[in-house]
Every structure is written in structure tokens, then in C-alpha cells.
Amino acid sequence: MKEVNLDELERKFQEKIDNDIKIEPKDWMPDDYRQTLIRQISQHAHSEIVGMLPEGNWITRAPNLRRKAVLLAKVQDEAGHGLYLYSAVETLGADREDTIDDLHSGKAKYSSIFNYPTLTWADMGAVGWLVDGAAIMNQVPLCRCSYGPYARAMVRVCKEESFHQRQGFEIMTKLAAGTPEQKAMAQDALNRFWWPSLMMFGPNDAESKHTQQSMDWKIKRHTNDELRQMFVDATVPQAELIGLTIPDPDLKFNEETGHYEFGEINWDEFWEVVKGNGPCNKDRVDARRKAKEDGEWVREAATAYAAKRKMRKAS
Amino acid sequence: MSNKEWPLWEVFIRSKQGLSHKHAGSLRAADEEMAIENARDVYTRRSEGISIWVVESKHVVASDPSDADSLYEPANTKIYRHPTFYDVPDGIEHM
Q1: Which tens digits make up the pLDDT trace of A154-172?
Q2: Measured in Å, how far apart are chain B's first and last C-alpha atoms?
């Protein structure tokens, strides 16, 4: 056993981070850094997996075969993204099944946006355009995150996500240019998903307890408020272009700063949903739990089949 | 269920003929056949590969990052192994 000095290890670790040298699984890292990543990456994985539910809801009711094939491919991508991320969590020494059990017991969180229902087909447009749009804002800087496996997973995810947002915007564009009923449906979806999408970036910087440490470790590259502002600036002109109205009477463009100013977010609603009191929290976790329980026999059969094949090969 | 977890596999993908297999990530599968099928679904949904290798992670032997200094130091001191170490007179174009 080599003689190691904890302060010296920490100093070398931070030096690597400061010089933009990635941290890889077998490198020494402070325990807090490891725990922060396990928490963040597993919750990110859960968000991808739970995120399949509101969209899966519409696969069988897509208006035509093209839309159905696209939605199916998108939902399959989300499953893949969840798997990349669970693999990244495992490189930190966490047990994949334990993290999933934490989701099912309510101990681990996932993105609150998925606790809102998808009531109409237009919601598939709003989710792709706004929810995936906000997710991309968050995920692009994560491609430069200091932890190698997380950064690499994010590169794959971002490449795949870009079609997700486009297909959503395409749905909204078509509906907004359709009959008055279709346009109203698109506007209604925007009305319901706008504010929850802004909440996806998390609490204001002043309230965000993890931000500073995560920035020092270069897990995060921008604060919540910076990312939220980038999202608003990018999205408002898109809504205008297709003739939809952002449901915020306080929204206005500030010529001096070059940014949009927007109204106060309803943080009470945000915290209620985080605490588990959103419209669909219970349904989402129940659905995940049921999927695991109902799939038990499949996993057992696969394990038994693998054992049988191994025996046959040996004999 | 947790202790009955399927083994972890490392996935390597050859993106096109003529290139070597490159590490793509890892996944869980009951056996090698399922590992290949899962690797196809997880890592090649957009024609990223034409050949897949899977290796059970427990069979990978890796160097220890804390040995990096002593392992790679000898190479650092032998700069004469690089062509840039040598003087080439003016007038020689290709060498």
C-alpha cells in the first residue's frame, strides 16, 4: 500500500479539473465528487426512462404512420439514453439495480416535467419542441463535463436528441398552420408546457444548493438561470415564427441586453411537483414499478436459458 | 433480484471496413448472444457499426492510473524515436 496524503490527492485532482483533464473511472476522486455524480447521472437516467411514459402514451394514437414511426424511434432513443447513463453510473461503483430501486421507492428524483400529463396529440409537439429543447440546453454543456464516461454518454445523447426537437417543432408547425381547432390545440399545449419547461432548469441560482460546487468541479458549466435564459432567448422567436403566443404577459425583449425578460416562475408549484404532488407522480412511479415486476419472469427465463446454453457448450 | 444481476459487458464497434473496433460503452446481458443483440439495439441504431465485439467486463485487465508516471516515463525520455528529432538538410523534400 502506497503512502497517500489526502490533501495532496485532492490538490492533484482539482489541478486536473482546472486544466480540463477528464477524470476517468479508475482515477482517484473525492468521495463527494463521486456521490454527486452518482446522484446526478442516475437521476438523469431515470428521467430518460420515465420520460418514455408521457410519449409512449401516444404511440398507438399517432395520426399517421410517419408520425408513429418517428415517435416510436424517439421513445426507443430515450430508452437507449437511459442505458448509456446507467452504464456511466456503474463506472462509479454504484449498483445499477440499487439506483433503479431508489427510483421505485421514491428516494431518487427524476425531471419534474414528466409528472405532467400528455392530454392531446399536440402535446407530442410541445414535449419534443420545449422539453427536449430544454434538455438539449442542459445536455450540450454536459458534453464537456469533467467526468469522462458522463461526457461521452452526453455526446451520443446530444447527437440523437437533435432530431427529437425538430420532430416536435414540426408537429407544432403543422398544427399551427392547420384548422382553427388544430391551432388552438397547439396553443393549448404550449400554454400547459411553457412554465413547466422553464422549471426544468431548476431553482434560481440563489436557491440552488449544489450549483457552486458542481461548477468548481466542472460537472456543470452554466448556472440554472443562465441556461434558462438561453432557452427563452432561443425559443420565443420560434413560437413567433409559427404564430403561437408564449403564455407570459410579462415577456418582453430588452434591446439593451439583447435578452428576453420573462415573468415570475411559480416556484410553489415546482416544489410541490418535486415533493411528489404533481398530477402524475404516482402514475409514473407505479408504471415503472409494474414494468419491473411484470418483466421479472422474462429476466428469470433469460438467466435460465443462458445457464442452460453454457452447460450444453461445456458438455 | 439484485444479486442475480446479469454480467456487465464491454462493447466494441467497428464503424466501417478498414477501421479497428473501438470501445463504445457497456451494457448488461444474460449471455454473449444477448449482449450482441443488446449492443446492436443500444449502440448501432444509426448505422454506427458493421461489426460488434462484446467482452465480459471482468475479463478486462487494466493498468493502474497511479502507475502512469513509472509506466510511461521511459517513452518520454526517448525523443529520438520521433522523426522530428533529426535534422534534414534543406533541399530534401520527401523523407
Answers
A1: 999 999 998 999 999 999 9
A2: 63
Tally of residues, chain A: 315
Q: Which residues of chain A does B41 touch, with a Cβ-Cβ cutoff of 8 Å?
A: 80
Cα separation, A99 vs A86, whole angstroms: 9
- In angstroms, rounded to a whole number, what is the distance separating the alpha carbons of residues A157 and A254? 33
Is B2 close to A98, i.e. CB distance below 8 A? yes
Beta bridge partners of B54: B11
Which of A90, A106, A101, A86 lies closest to A34 in space, CA to CA? Answer: A90
**CA–CA separation, B44 and B29 (whole Å):** 16
- By Cβ distance, the residue of B30, B45, B65 closest to A26 is B65
- Residue A2, pLDDT score: 57
Give the residue on A whose Cα is nearest the Cα of B2.
Answer: A97
Q: Which residues of B touch A73 (CB under 8 A)?
A: 45
For chain A, say whether B75 makes contact (Cβ under 8 Å).
no
Report the distance separating Cα B81 and Cα A303, nearest Å: 51
- Which of the pair, A232 or B5, is modelled with greater confidence? A232
The interface pTM score, or ipTM, of the predicted complex is: 0.88
